[in-house]
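Office hours follow-up: a student asked to see two folded examples consecutively, so here they are.
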Amino acid sequence: MSAHAEHHGPPIANQSSRVSASVLGMFLFIASEAMLFGAFFTAYFFVRVVNPEAQPWPLEPFHLPVFVAGVNTAILVTSSFTMHWALQSVKRGNRAGLQAGLVLTLLMGLAFLVTQMLEYARIGFNPGDGAFGTIFFGLTGLHGAHVFVGLTLLAVATVRAFRGHYTPEHHHGVEIPGIYWHFVDVMWIVVYATIYLI
């Protein structure tokens, strides 16, 4: 009996030789998440542009901690480099570099999230304080939720890395969380520039 005749169940999915199905799935998921953020940015610009009285932005008495958010941005951007280091390390078979890169990325992500929570506690307004408060907490909170999801994925990848689950040939468990983490970083740069700087 041939191997083809022994196969049971649905046919094996056709797969591109360039992009694996799991990586493609993550890219499609990220595209849907980008649309979600797009809806929030649309609301932000609608509130800000349609209301001439919303200038200067933010309205008094709101003040944003631009410097602290800038430091937080630097932390998150740096974590993208450590994530890239982890992925390149596993591709080269460097287990120590993989572990160090993942741990550093995880720690910087946690530092970002803790700093943002402290900012929320001290900022002096809440989501119920008009359209600005709602938009600010909506956009930054949405991003914070994505950071939390990213940290969960990184924590799983880090535990698996210390258990020796990854090899240069099999490292999708590092690559896929890495793609998501880079998306989170890029999206924060857009949020920071839009909310804090423009």
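And the second, which I mentioned at the end of office hours:
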Amino acid sequence: MAIPVILDVDTGVDDALALLFAAAHPELDLIGVSCVAGNASLERVVDNTLRVLALAGATDVPVAAGASRPLIEPARDAGHVHGADGLAGVVLPPADRRAEPEHAVEFLRRTILAHPEPVTLVALAPQTNLALLLRLHPEVAANLARIVFMGGSAGVGNATALAEFNVWHDPEAASVVLGSGVPLFMYGLDVFNHVAVPRERAQALAASVEPLPSAVGWLLDHRIAAPDGTPGDYLGWIGDAGAVCSLVVPDALRVERLPVRVELAGYGRGQTVVDRREHPGEDAAHGLTTEWATVDVALGVDAERVAGLFLDTVVPGA
């Protein structure tokens, strides 16, 4: 039986790849998509999401618009990473439908509670929608199999030296989700930065006359610009799509169950602190410990296998 999944997205480049994979893989039943501001404005995220699902032939998947900014701080522009349109200039035809009329939080509540099987909620964005859902409607936790989130790091950050973008964008929301009691799986930068498609394959896809392979190739070939606007080198990351791939091939990842917390102040704001110590330290000895969530944390990945799964699913034979 296919896994019922909902994706919570801020559709930029790699969210688009994740949506294409989720819509295509037979072991996943994409029952809905909720949108939040992050990589782009909420309006742009919704439009991008509808266009990507149309490209995937998944026009029956409902889409709902959610939070337009973090819980506390203003929204931040990530155009230097994903381009002004959020899709790195890849032009997709307009969708011939609109988002659901209800707010994403209500859509998530209704969809999760109505489903006959526990739902896997995959967060590929700042977790504002999820925090609002779990605080306003805690009853949904009973029908969540788990929350898989692309976010955080057990090592270095990218938004700052310590913090990964999705958690850094709304750390209070991430902290709420960590404290929710729902089973959690963290697909962070430790694995995100390793799953890539070779440049030659991406360029071959981009040269295709077929809309889907061409779009995938151009998305993979997007170069992340430096803060001064200088185009970066080819990376070929499938990014957020790797978190969705992990649902299908969980044995392709090395996972440890570890204590995790989110820092909410100072330069470390937005950092996911992952406690990998084998024994208690001085903090425990002196009564300085606080409550931590216990999370399944991905620390290693068979990158070639996951990238191959992505390509075989989204552009088979291309």
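Two things to take away from it. The first strand starts at residue 3 and ends at 9. The chain has one domain: 3-314.
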